[in-house]
Here is the input.
Amino acid sequence: MIMDIRCFIDRTHRFPQYVFEGRWDSFHFFDSDRMLEAHFTQVVKALLHVEGGTCALMIDLDVAGSDEWSRFQFDRDTTEHGYQTFLGGNPATGEGWLYGVDRFACNSNVGEWCIYCESGNEIGVLAIGDKERLPEYQMIIDELHALEIEQAILLPLSYGFSARALSQEWRSELVKQYGRSEKK
Here is the structure.
């Protein structure tokens, strides 16, 4: 049984607001396109392995109900090809996650981590519930090319974090909500 993602995400919030519910110890930001690539299957499998989970659910937060395009379930047998096929959906009708600029969330049946992204802003974030376990997650964080928010903005990590994409006020609010010194 997968924990309900609604328990972890406040659907009424969007970046730069704090989108998570409950306590999360660390936040690692990345280019949201990584969630919409076939290789994301391997990232989810690695997250499941670290926490001891068996399955994860990714949902499109901007699609209502239980439409076949609103959710995708990962488990240890999920293939990159299967996920890529789902992402592509039906090009003739425009159904499929590759064709929109929606918000997505993903978490597992254990719930030690949660991922949220806004594809329209090109920003994704991996939240981890126990910072003491960060060393166990470090390879996955590196694979996502994820950074703490201050670093993601400073570089910038991708176009979505740049001054051209985000105003100074917006970037400052992200740091306020997700920065190292902030505790939720």
Observations:
- The chain has one domain: 5-178.
- The mean pLDDT is 90.
- The first helix runs from residue 40 to 51.
- The radius of gyration is 15 Å.
